[in-house]
């Protein structure tokens, strides 16, 4: 029989957060091992329940959710999103500027598929949330990575961004608060990026899915609220702040000079229609989520579980010789560095695989986030302090064998 291969358009598409190491973790679990999983930002398995009122809204509305709905999403859900952004305030956002999706993931892919032609370039942070790179590649575009500077609290390097702009550059992705680094960008920094986008007519793709997960004195600024004359597409959803990742519900909001982008917006509408409509039941959660009690604050303020876990994880990681971590100001992750003078790591995927088989702890290697060197890894700060402590202790023990 002739071999059946994946399509050529997938040959350079990578999404290693759920790659071969996760498959090995599943195999170990099937053999009966307990694996401490610090690999995926999925709040609910770690005891972070979605607000009861949004669950009840979905249950109550199930009978109305049987048929297909509007391709762009339920009117009431879009209206709630519109009002949320009007308060930011992102100016000039109408109901038609909002698209609901089956998670931000679907919308990222749609946003790239509708825009890119072969050779078009999108600037993406390194490290990144790798779906952005994968979506650009899948859409026959070219991901061009700009460097985020660990010495500057992981702030993107503006000179590097400027130096990578070519006539083919169509847009720039900002992930703020950032996955995996936890950086939160200041207003002054965002204004600089806006200026670059203005000069080079770039679209800003603002992934703000962690906008409510902030620590200490961090303040989140939506880039779309800081300019009216640059096309900004802002992404957000229910997966993180509302702990409802399995609902698969997200949205994108288009702001700025839309009259210059009619063709692109038509393309987005066409892709929205081709998937018929976003899943109906979970859309009934959006209005209550955005308008209801923001229980996420109880988790991030002093005494909150997320804050406590971030603090403890950071402290334990920084106590390991040769391991250092910039304290995240937002999101759900640490992205620590392994001093290459101390640890001989040539292949960081192999390292996390060795950690998994030897200690039954699952992390994700830094190169999975398009970080160019095998000297970082990502930890999710969602597990209870006891599990985080156990996992980090096992990691420290494992690392001692990698010392050169
Ligand atoms: N964007 C970022 C930065 C993320 O970290 C994630 C999920 O981890 C997503 C988008 C995808 O979110 P969703 O569950 O809405 O598809």
List the helices and strands and how they pair.
Blueprint: H1 20-30, E1 36-37, H2 52-61, H3 75-87, E2 98-101, H4 103-115, E3 121-126, H5 131-138, E4 142-149, E5 155-156, H6 158-163, E6 169-175, H7 187-200, E7 203-207, E8 232-237, E9 250-255, H8 262-274, H9 280-283, H10 286-291, H11 296-300, H12 305-318, E10 323-324, E11 333-334, E12 337-338, H13 348-359, E13 361-362, E14 364-365, E15 377-380, H14 385-400
Parallel strand pairs: 1-13, 3-4, 3-6, 6-7, 7-8
Antiparallel strand pairs: 2-9, 4-5, 8-9, 10-12, 11-15, 14-15
Helix pairs in contact: 1-13, 4-5, 4-8, 12-14
This protein binds pyridoxal-5'-phosphate.
Pyridoxal-5'-phosphate binds at residues 41, 103-105, 129, 175, 179, 207, 209, 237, 239, 245, 250.
EC number: 2.6.1.2
Family: Belongs to the class-I pyridoxal-phosphate-dependent aminotransferase family.
Keywords: Aminotransferase, Pyridoxal phosphate, Transferase
